[in-house]
Amino acid sequence: MLTTAALRAHLLTARLAGVVGTTREESLRSYRLFAARDPRVLIGLDPEWVWGERKLIALMADRCGVSADPGHVSGHDVIDPERTLAALDACAERLASAARRRVPVLLGTGHPHRLLGFYAALADALSAAGCAVLTPAHGRCVDITTRFGLRTYNLDYVRGVGLVRDAGPERSGGEPGAHTHSPLPVRVALTAAAEAGGPLPGLVIGDHGWLCGAGQLGFEAVGPADVNDPAPFVGQAEGAVSVVVPLDDGVRAGDYLPLTRYVLNRACLSR
């Protein structure tokens, strides 16, 4: 069993928390873009409140532990591991509740190269507990605007986890999926589920557009977010997103698996 102390040490060693790879420059740029309501960083959220850069810095300092000083403009950002642990505990409570009620769940990621294994283990455990793991709109085309223009992707599910794959001829069968922050995949999935008259998720677990897109549509949503992605934390502050776990989302895929074990143990879903 992974103890809290052991996980705290792992968070620091893997740089999931503590001094992380995300730079202060990256974070401040995202805060400025969010304050200007740039859709690239809103990732599906439609904020109700006015969020200026200083207000965002204060929020991220409170939720993540980054520096609250607007004059701190360079170097690497810092995530307080205690905030990460507390959010993981809150996430475990939501999973335990979903398992007790056996509600349908939807999981998805815009970071399949890093986080697919993390979500797949959660999907396996929730399925074993009696939750239906939904895969609506499997194979549906999703047009997403990227820095290279409009591109068409296919919505796919791997071990119960939603992601998108490039629909073009350059698609590689060995790739786990494409990187995207777009909320369109979860919107397509939820719309398809509603139109089919089938079950809708009682809990959505995901990151970026999956997290904010589902929360904005009124679904209970939980998941991780890096400190240069203020939208999930704003969503949580405004009540659209239920739980956000602050962590670096760019470390090695295997480094997220201890977090999965910890959450499943806390949720009493370990097998």
TrEMBL record:
Classification via InterPro entries: Phosphatase_SCO2771
Pfam families: Phosphatase (PF15698)
Highest taxon, organism lineage: Bacteria
Protein name: Phosphatase
Organism: Streptomyces calvus
